[in-house]
Amino acid sequence: MKTYLYHHSVPFQDTDMAGVVHYTRILGYAELAEHAFLLELGILPISKSGGLPKVHVECDYLRPLKFADDIAIELSLIKFSPRSIHWGFQLTANDEISAKGKLITAHVDVNGNPSEMPTQWQSLLGE
Amino acid sequence: MKTYLYHHSVPFQDTDMAGVVHYTRILGYAELAEHAFLLELGILPISKSGGLPKVHVECDYLRPLKFADDIAIELSLIKFSPRSIHWGFQLTANDEISAKGKLITAHVDVNGNPSEMPTQWQSLLGE
Amino acid sequence: MKTYLYHHSVPFQDTDMAGVVHYTRILGYAELAEHAFLLELGILPISKSGGLPKVHVECDYLRPLKFADDIAIELSLIKFSPRSIHWGFQLTANDEISAKGKLITAHVDVNGNPSEMPTQWQSLLGE
Amino acid sequence: MKTYLYHHSVPFQDTDMAGVVHYTRILGYAELAEHAFLLELGILPISKSGGLPKVHVECDYLRPLKFADDIAIELSLIKFSPRSIHWGFQLTANDEISAKGKLITAHVDVNGNPSEMPTQWQSLLGE
Asked: Does the structure's ipTM exceed the value 0.90?
């Protein structure tokens, strides 16, 4: 299984009045890793040939994240088809798992209609 | 089952370069409805006696939301215990379901440790 | 001088760990009022004929805003030319001025190049 | 004049439907640099002894920023007193200045009241 590690330091502006990172921001961190991984593979997450919107997300929040925490975001390519990619993600900070979940993205053309991803992507993801 | 309807108009600043509302913002809309519902019941989502952080979220994205769309967010209280609340949510815009999912919140004290919610909340939620 | 009043209730997700609304969000509130005003005048802030990006913003923060505060955002059309619009804004909550500032937007075509706004807009703004 | 250089890559989630980074996010980038600089100097931007909320911001937006742009954020300490710090910032991407502006932060105690910053900070800033 293809995996990728992305590091991120929590900015103040991602915290909320409870003193921890807001749950929506944590889901956004998964996308930071997803896009960094895709770009490293040579895949543009959005371009004139279409995009990869999320069609499903889920996340369990195990421990709060705080300002200036160094997070390791581990992304795993669970499976892919010509029309979708399934990712797993796990966030670790201070030697403890903070959150874990899944993202499913579908491939769409520039009009937002479901479409097959370029054949080249499939080999890039499968290598 | 207790339900609540919350209306929201999509602001420009919630869209991304794909021209649609970012998936993290859609999950944030669920919280807008959750908090409005709690406040209407007389429950403060955060106070000196603690808070209600999300411990699990999941969402299926069915149709994109766009700038200025009027969204109806239907929130349903699925179940609650002294330590957690399970919500279902469904977003409708332009007469079509755009997204649906679940939120689970746990009750924590001011130090972020799991704790039972005030007894009064349980009757407010159960009425 | 044309003025417009927009009401907004502060969501939890706009607060930061200092317990108050983050300064970037407050500037975003000014845009909520700007866009609501434009839409009411019949002007689309973004369309196939172009958009109105901010070219200058400034803001003085006088008093913090908190979760669930009801804010009155007063927007004033200071001046406009075929190529730009100058807005003043002032946010009031709990009977005190919380923030005030300015936005300047330029009109650009779909390629992002400076261009004159439709003649019709100038009469809509000037009426 | 003390200066600091901070690098940031534009995430997809900071773009809006105009295809460029939203103006509020660009102001947030200035804070990323501000906090990184303060932490490097050994100054906590928020702690039990207080914080450094923005009391004034201003920004000129010269050229749009796009997804995956590498931004150099140059932060300059313009001046400071026991009660406030004035910063200048300039963002450069693709060899062109994209935005420049100012931040003024005031020192407040944990109750949000204006207060003098620790004497040690003044020497850390002045060194």
From this structure: yes
The pTM is what? 0.97
Q: Which residues pair with D8 in a beta bridge?
A: D71
Using CA coordinates, name the residue in chain D closest to B19. D17
Burial (0-12, 13-18, 19+ Cβ within 10 Å), D127? exposed
Answer whether B23 touches A (CB < 8 Å).
yes
Report yes or no: B67 at the D interface, CB cutoff 8 Å. yes
C-beta of residue D27 within 8 angstroms of C-beta of residue C119: no
Chain C contact for D109 (CB, 8 A cutoff): no
Closest approach of D82 to chain B, Cα-based (Å): 32
Q: Is A102 on the interface with D (CB under 8 A)?
A: no
Which residues 6+ apart lie within 8 Å of A22 measured at CB? A14, A15, A16, B28, C13
B71 near B91, Cβ under 8 Å? yes
CB C15 within 8 A of CB C22: yes
Encoded tokens for D107: 């020192």
- CB-based contact B112 A64, cutoff 8 Å: yes
Write the DSSP string, D23-41. HHHHHHHHHHHHHHHHHHH
Residues of B in contact with A56 (CB under 8 A): 58-61
Packed helices B23-41 and A23-41: angle between N→C axes, nearest 10 degrees = 170
pLDDT digits (tens, 9 = 90+) for D36-93: 999 999 999 999 889 999 999 999 999 999 999 999 999 999 999 999 999 999 999 9
